[in-house]
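job 3f2a | input accepted
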Amino acid sequence: MRTVTILDSKMKKKHTKQFTFLSAKGLFFILLATVIILGTLNLLQAKGLFIPSQPKPLVENGIVDLDRLTLEQKIAQMTVVLWTPDLIMAWKNLQMGGLYMYALATENYFKSLIGELQQEMVIPFFITADAEGCFNPFENFWDFLPNNKITTVGEAFEKGFREGEEMKNLGFNLNFAPVVDLGDEIWKCRSFPGSEVEVAELAQAYTLGLQTQGIKATAKHYPGKTLSGKDPHKNIAEAEIEAKDLYPYYYLIEKGDVSSIMVSHLITTGEVDSKGVPSVVSVEVIEHLKQQFPGLIISDEIHMLGLKNYYATVDEMYIALFKAENDLILNFDKDPNEVYRMIQVIKAAVEAGDISEDYIDASVKKILEAKGFVVKD
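job 3f2a | predicted structure (377 res):
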């Protein structure tokens, strides 16, 4: 009996060890699978693939019925976002108004990518860039003179024409240029040289050259002096606006060619008083500009610290931008979930009556018309 008991005890210990080993191995694989699943879900979430897709907009014979667009679609159309390779589906699903693009390696890469981006988009994106002077999004295959080297109207027209020709060939349709600030003390090469009259004439010639190629021009940064003090990319900045700072804008508006005007984050006094807030969120500044100019009013990029640091929360900033009634908002947040959240914040504010839905419709109408549609409202 003793021998049997000893053998039975040894077998139990052996089976216990095997069971413990198998249990530990199984637990390891369960934990590994859990980590992989959670990691995959986090990756998909980071790419915005859990954001609900908007319904396909109804467009018939080039006519868009505003009443058939959801409020989310309208707010998305009013937003230009930053293109990155992993966010194509998110931006398509949200039906954003535009994409901003940085430098790519080759012309063919630009052309094929933009073709892919626009594929199956019932309402196409604005494809945008800053081909404006110093910064060159096409530097890997194409050189052009910076603005400070342009001294004649002929050179300005040629610059606009050639840049427009190349941008059209690549698939762009909206350029955030020309810069019409008087003097550039920060970058040294973004502004045209000369007096306000000379800058205005050069900017007009550039605009004509660009727009003959079907690329919409943007005069910036209203109301001026964006390049002559603290850099609003990094600081809350203030400036006193003089009549000469405004002259290029009035000149371009009078000529009637420029498609859009970009508003800066400067807190301004003098000829344009933003009432202690950044110009881009000043109801007075935007309202006055809209009374003179029927084209698109575009915000400068909203995560520049000259605007963002003015507010305690980004939600306050979002609300202020839309309350001021900008037409197109540049939001280059790399998280599509945050962009989607902005849309929801603005949607809730519209539904609560804090932001005018008539303004939303009027801005979307301008955007769609700029994209070549007839709008039924």
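job 3f2a | The radius of gyration is 27 Å.
job 3f2a | closed
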